[in-house]
Amino acid sequence: MQTLPHRSAEVAEETLDPGDWSDVQAVARQAVDDAIGYLRDVRERPVWRKIPDEMARTFKAPLPRSPTPLPEVYREVGETVMPFPMGNIHPRFWAWYMGSSNFTGALADFLAAIQGSNLGGGNHAAARMDEQVVNWCKEMIGFPASTSGSLVSGGSMANTIALIVARNVKAGVDVRERGIAAIARPLRFYASDQLHSCHRKAIEAIGLGNGALRRIPTGDDLRLDLAALGAAIAHDRAAGFQPACVIGNAGTVNSGAIDDLQAIAELAAREDLWFHVDGCIGALIAVAPANRHRVRGLERADSVALDPHKWLHAPFEVGCVLVRDAAAHRASFSVEQEYLGKTPRGLAAGDWLYEYGMQTSRGFRALKVWMALKQHGIEKFGRLIDQNIAQGHYLDGLIAAEPLLEITAPTTINIVCFRHLAPGLDDAAARDLNVEIMMRLQEDGTAAISDTTIHGRHCLRVAINNHRTRRSDLDLLVREVVRLGREIAGGR
Ligand SMILES: Cc1ncc(COP(=O)(O)O)c(C=O)c1O
What we know:
Layout: H1 21-40, H2 53-58, H3 70-80, H4 103-115, H5 125-141, E1 148-152, H6 155-170, H7 175-178, E2 187-192, H8 197-205, E3 213-216, H9 226-238, E4 242-249, H10 261-271, E5 274-279, E6 303-306, H11 308-311, E7 319-323, H12 326-333, H13 366-376, H14 378-400, E8 405-407, E9 415-420, H15 427-443, E10 450-454, E11 457-463, H16 471-491
Helix pairs in contact: 4-13, 5-13, 6-8, 6-12, 14-16, 15-16
The chain binds pyridoxal-5'-phosphate.
């Protein structure tokens, strides 16, 4: 490199780098030690606790204008943030649906930020690793290598991207150029009434309107009713709509029900529909030897959304969308941009990864998945999925054996829906009792569970997507639910 003849040394220039790296080294070492202790002792702490008011007030502080030494900044985080987590890394967190993270993934997130690459694309190792993780996801669910895919923020974005491609392929016009108003016959998408709400957001965002997403009833098994689906498609065709896509659930968010994916694949082929699978919960069951039969048919989908931040326990955020027709996928998002051209060699050689989704800048999500998969191997993750499903059935058995409790939906995988019985109480009072039990479990720090309403019936819900849970934790949960039920009834 040439030295340029000017007087740059006289200009006072700043950087975010420290003047003395040994200062940050001390804080970083402390942070790693603290982090390891934090994870090692997680079981000893409450699952959740309310942030004290004086702590909450610290989050209202004005914008900092002058510097604070890093050790002090770190100390403040240790006091105000670390003791009050959501709790989803705790062995007794079973609310809503999320993974429980892992140390290797956290280390990877740190390294990814240090290495700093932007995964919009470019010719560098992080981009190649991103492609490799997408390829591994294909392999996990039995998709061909020719499939395209993208690591995204999570399941919601993975589903949205798939629905965009489905719309564009089935529209019959160039929707990207002419918009949805040019579609001759309004498109219709189909899914069971147990579908996750992100699909509604997606269908609204892509301009089709909530009414274009037909909810097909489910029976007591909470699986899509195929006869009702066939009837809805015939009805819509006769009424001048264009049936475009059917979404199958590989694990519904309410109860974990798995639609008959083989039958839906056949129906979609017969009716010329795009077949998308929301596999955010259950696509990865394909790697679990004792349960993989449950998601047979998944490999026939046109697109799949799956969520490594659930059953691969990657720290948030990472989801993955896979699309069988790679050309259709790219054609939905690729834009020629004068400022992001490709070159035959150098940093801009190769595919731009941002051509497969909505983001331009993308984080290095692949590293946390890659490092944990390398360390443990996919067979371990398969066993952990089987373990959670076995724990779900174990809990189902405990509840069924307890006279004061009642299972309210069939347990298929790792989600258990139940309620505390409330003899003599009306529905509203029974709901209040169950919600009170749920809140006390959370406030006592014993366990975090959530609730839902299925086919009009309120219930408590335990989703065991957690590599730290042991059966003894589930024993404790049942004991505490019964104890709290008695305590609340006694206080009435
Ligand atoms: C079946 C299903 N689909 C989609 C989603 C949305 O995924 P994410 O929260 O990763 O956006 C979830 C989340 O739990 C889910 O359970």
